[in-house]
Design goal:
This protein is α+β, with helices and mostly antiparallel strands. It is 23% helix and 33% strand.
Length: 225
Amino acid sequence: MEQVLDNPIYYALTSGHSHISKGTDQVKYYVEDITAFAGLKDNSQENLNTLYQISPLESLFVFFSKTPVEIPRQWKLLNQIDMFQFIFRGREIPTADATGITDLDLKHVKEMINLVELTKPGPFLAKTIELGNYTGIFAEGKLAAMAGHRFFPRPYREVSAVCTHPEHLGKGYAYKILQEQIKRILNRSEIPFLHVRNDNEGAIKLYQKLGFEIRTDMIAYVIKK
């Protein structure tokens, strides 16, 4: 069952997120404005060419691969990010107090986008909040930290957009929010997982402290049409 995590975007778009996907049986991508990710059944030249042919003009996509991929010439490679994929191996559901954690909704999107632009945890668009379960902590009336859900390759649920405003680092906000995220996912009989840059030592230590373990290496490719 865990092998779906070798290709989490494709399997999210064919299972938990099939209702917000576009494309073909082999090549899928998220509805525009939700998130800029594409999932291919295999990262072949043929499927990358198909993605180019079926997607809108000037599309920008991020896709994941466990192994290096040669990008066809018609695509412009904007970035390549080496990551770890973590999966939750903890044995107990966190029981931490959720006091101070706020469920985020549409009225918070502007603040969420501002925080993401400041901290760069990954893509966050106007309708990304529709992926669900975004929670935050406010300090002095402003959003200080947040996290939410992204890919949903059943029964796995990804925790994403984990970020803290630089003025509020070291206060334990990320730890508290992540405990709540883990608790909510486990209470739905799902399994938490996440991705992180492999040079982000602080985040890696935090995830390991919470009960996550490295499952595999992963490469994110950012390409533009």
